[in-house]
Each structure stands twice: as structure tokens, then as C-alpha cells.
Fold:
Amino acid sequence: MPTHRPLLRSSTVPFLASLAAAAGMLFLFSHLGPLDGAVPGARRLLRNVHVVDLSGGRPGADAVDFLWQDGLIREVGQGLNPAGADVVEGHGAWVLPAPADAGVFLSLEGRLPADSVPAEAAQSLRLQAGAGVGLLLDLNAHRSFMAAARALPDPKPRVLFAGALFTAPGGWRLSGQTPWNSHLAEILETADLDAPWQRLLRFGDQAVFASVEHEGRDDLAIPLPVLQELGRRAREQGLPFIIHVQHHAKALQALQARPSALLGPIIDAGDDTALAKALVAGHCAYLPALGSVLNAIPGQALEAWQRGFPASASVAVETLRQATDPDRAGQWVKHWTRQDVTTAQVLAVPAALAANGATLALATGSGLPLVFHGVGLQAELAWMSRAGLSQSQVLTAACVNSRALLGQGAGRLAAGQPADLLLLRADPMSDPSAMERVQALYVAGEPVPR
Structure:
């Protein structure tokens, strides 16, 4: 996994100097040598598995074998028998690239998240691994969590961290949501990007995250010139630049900052075709994050599940039913009611964008109220299906486009790609509930304990 030098550095912080030196010793996954979490020199042969055909082609294709070494797939074919490789029998399992979640909050604090976030880093990652998630981007990490997560032994899901959450004064926070111990960076002018608070950054940024939302405000919460400068710095570092936006008009403005992705959901009515064309022209992906809104309205959500969601939603439904706190849920219902949000309106956007050529990727918003780690993946996949996306579109968003967005391979099971594999007991293209029946998760070629 590539580790990048900080987006904004201060020569007064010795740790950052050592971090920059360490960065010179790391490499991109496409270079020779093992990935993070890989056992150097380890060779493993996975026999007798079926590759999930995301194109919607014929199921039941002939079984194949996978050979990987140093965390990278070396060969895919039939009848492979290399000397000295550890052999794992796949027993006819179905395999696809391990899903990547490009928008989670692993360690939020405050009164509202409560049960959504475990107290310990190990538990958060265990829940994600249990659902088969192999790669995560934490959009605004608790400082102590970051240290604890990085100290956990491999193998574990790959975790990338965004640095500060860039927002405007008064932005991002909702009524009832207390600030958490994180890097919340409030900016209104370009000069704010070089303010003294930067000295508090003690890690290498692996993505840049900004929110241009502010309830009751029609324009961008961060002025466009500032947002454009933030994007320029992100591109200079080669980092994904993700902007949180929930309104059509703001999304069209924010695209002028050339982000890598917009994080939704879009909650108002607008011209989806125009937005899709702008996303395509800007080579920008869209992360619907439907559960971050719809799970937070339990009455609507549970009713929707019961009206015909795929069987893959069953675990998430029961978790929501057991964990819903009327007081917390009521606060969020009031918030979304003030903005006149309806389930149908939120669900209408992703399929319309996809139909007009936009690239959709996966972000669950896990860690936000009533979006639970692990089952948050199942809930999001079910919401995307409910929105009208085909199973091919849903799985491509989760297993291909998100990985490409985060720079962790092209989401293909081919030689030279990371050996991040999810093994299922059935074909998820014909049976969406197969995503619940995980047989094994491999990250950098190593089996992750579940």
C-alpha cells in the first residue's frame, strides 16, 4: 500500500521529517516487492474457484487456479502446479476482488454515533473483515484509533486515512452531534491552508476529504477558490480528492475543483442528466452512500427492507431493528425532515447518473448513526439494488471502481494486481445474498481472520 507524505507539512515537527524519510523507502503496488501485509517470498496456489463474471455473462464458467507471491497475483489459469507453493483448495468457491469502501468513519465520537462505532480499533476492523471488506478509507479518523489500527498485526483489511476533514466554520456538524477528537480543519480563505493548526498533522495523508455542505446555506460552504487550491495540492501529491456534497447545484460547483469523487447522497431534486455529464467530463466518480441517510430514518428504512430488498439485507435489517434508539433516531428524522428528504428522491439519483454514463463507486458511511460496521456493506448494496442498479453495477461499484479510486489496483483478477480476494459460497450475480456467505477473505495474499 502506498504511503504518502503529508499534504501540508511543517518543518517544526520532527516526526514529519522522519515520515518523509520513511516514505522514500516505500513503493507503489506496481513496483517489485511485497505489498503491506504480504509475507515476503510467500507463494500460495488457490485451486478450483470460479471467477465472478461482472459483465453478466454466463454463470458456471470453468474453474481456475490463482497463483500469487509477495501480495501480487502472478498467474491465473487451469491446472497450475508450481513447485514450492502452499496449496489452498477453493472447493468451487466464487471469487471476486475484495470490496473496497471509500467512505467510512471508523472512530466517530459524540452522542449520536453511539452503537454504530466499536470502542476499539480491532473490533471495527474485525467487523469489516467479517463482511468481506478488504480495503477501507477512513474519512476522518480519531487520532488514537489511527495509532491503534496501524499497530494491529497483519493480515487485516487495508486501511487508508484521510487527513483533516476540511470544512467551513459551522459546517459538517449537525444538531445533536458533538465534535470528535479528530482533525477538523475549518477553512474560509486560501491562507487558512497554511495556518498553525497544520502542525498538528502527524501522519501521511492518503486522501483529502472536504465537505462543502452547511445546512441552510445554498452556496458552497468552502469558497470555490479555496476548494480549487485544496484540490491542486491533492493532485500534486497524487492523492484522491473527495468532496462531500448533497445538492445538485453545489455538486456542479464543486466539480470545478476537479475532485476524484463526490460523496453523496444527493438529497434534493435536480437535473441528474446534467450532473452525470459533468461527472463524466470531469473524470469524477460518484459515491452514493445511500445508507448514511436512509438508515438514519428507521421507520422508512425498515419498511423498505420488508417490501422486497434482496435477502442480503436480512442481517442489516435485524441489526437496525435491535439497535435503533428512539431518541437518537428522532434527532436524525428531524434533521432530514427539515431538508424535505424522501426515500424515493434519494434512491432516484444513482441509477439516473449511471444510466447517463457516470462511474459509481462504494462508500457506506459506516460509523455514522445507524450505519454499522460490517453490516453497513450489506445495507448499502441492498439500497443500491433498491435504487434500480443491476447486480453487475452494484458489484462493479464495490469491487472494481472503489479500488481504482483509491489507487489500490484496477479491481481486476489478473497478473500484476493485488491478491485481495473475496471467496463466496455462491455466485453473487445470480444470488445477491451470496455476499453474506463469505468463505474467506485474502488481503495481500494472506487469509484475514474473521
Remarks:
- The mean pLDDT is 78.
- The first strand starts at residue 43 and ends at 51.
